[in-house]
């Protein structure tokens, strides 16, 4: 009932009960900053051993390329004239085959991760066919050189040419064996260990592709003239 003509005393707010204060303190103590999420390491495809081999192989080829460039610096005219005897069409066809095979191998690994073994097997067989095509073109190119009287002992340029491409061809043959193994692995049940095998094989094949791209640029496309 309102206070008519009488001054009403202001209402006093009751202090919170001791239990409520304790509850508030307890709740505020529980509010803590969220712990930072642990950083996830990026996935490195394949086994660690395959990467040691890949880096070692790249180091060896890098030294070979340096030796080639030094020889080219000392015998510029000889290397320029010898390069004209190379068939760039063969080199371009082999480059397309290697790039296509690498795409197929990468697609096969993705198909395995998404549980599509039939697609993975198809991609790997196409990559294997590209490898066979590469070998066939290289045999044609070697035959063309031999019929023209060009051999490994013709001059320094062709010594490098036959050694470099011969070693790379050996890598292609080894890689084709790896592709056959990958095809068999992809046809079965792929667990984490078998997926590591597939990724290791794919990494090696990509190395073979990368080496050929470097060889194609170095042997077939490098300008003949060296600026003074």
Short summary:
Helix content is 73%, strand content 0%. With 228 residues, the protein is mostly helical.
Structure, explained:
The protein is mainly α. It has a domain at 87-221: Cytochrome c oxidase, subunit III, four-helix bundle (Four Helix Bundle (Hemerythrin (Met), subunit A), Up-down Bundle), CATH 1.20.120. The chain is 73% helix and 0% strand. Helix 2 runs parallel beside helix 7. The longest helix is centred in the C-terminal third of the chain and has 32 residues, at 156-187. The chain is elongated, with a radius of gyration of 34 Å.
User: What is the SS-derived class?
Assistant: mainly alpha
Number of strands: 0
Mean pLDDT: 83
Strand/helix succession:
HHHHHHH
Superfamily (CATH H level) name of the domain at 87-221: Cytochrome c oxidase, subunit III, four-helix bundle
Q: Report the CATH C-level class of the domain at 87-221.
A: Mainly Alpha
The name of the CATH topology of the domain at 87-221 is Four Helix Bundle (Hemerythrin (Met), subunit A)
Radius of gyration, taken over Cα atoms and rounded to an integer in Å: 34 Å
Task: Report the major sheet.
Answer: none
């Amino acid at each position: 009932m309102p206070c008519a003509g009488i001054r009403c005393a202001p209402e006093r707010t009751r202090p919170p009960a001791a239990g409520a204060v304790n509850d508030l303190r307890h709740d505020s103590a529980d509010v803590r900053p969220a712990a930072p999420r642990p950083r996830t390491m990026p996935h490195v495809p394949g086994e660690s051993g395959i990467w040691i081999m890949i880096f070692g192989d790249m180091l060896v080829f890098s030294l070979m390329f340096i030796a080639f460039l030094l020889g080219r610096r000392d015998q510029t005219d000889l290397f320029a004239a010898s390069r004209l005897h190379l068939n760039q069409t063969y080199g371009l066809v082999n480059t397309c085959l290697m790039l296509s095979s690498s795409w197929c191998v990468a697609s096969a690994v993705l198909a395995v991760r998404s549980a599509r073994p039939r697609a993975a097997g198809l991609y790997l067989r196409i990559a294997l066919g590209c490898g066979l095509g590469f070998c066939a073109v290289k045999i044609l190119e070697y035959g063309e050189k031999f019929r023209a009287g060009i051999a490994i002992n013709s001059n320094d340029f062709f010594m490098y040419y036959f050694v470099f491409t011969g070693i790379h061809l050996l890598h292609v043959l080894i890689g084709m064996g790896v592709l056959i193994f990958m095809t068999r692995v992809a046809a079965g049940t792929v667990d984490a260990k078998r997926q590591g095998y597939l990724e290791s094989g794919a990494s090696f094949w990509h190395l073979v592709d990368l080496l050929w791209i470097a060889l194609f640029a170095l042997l077939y496309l490098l300008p003949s003239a060296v600026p003074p």
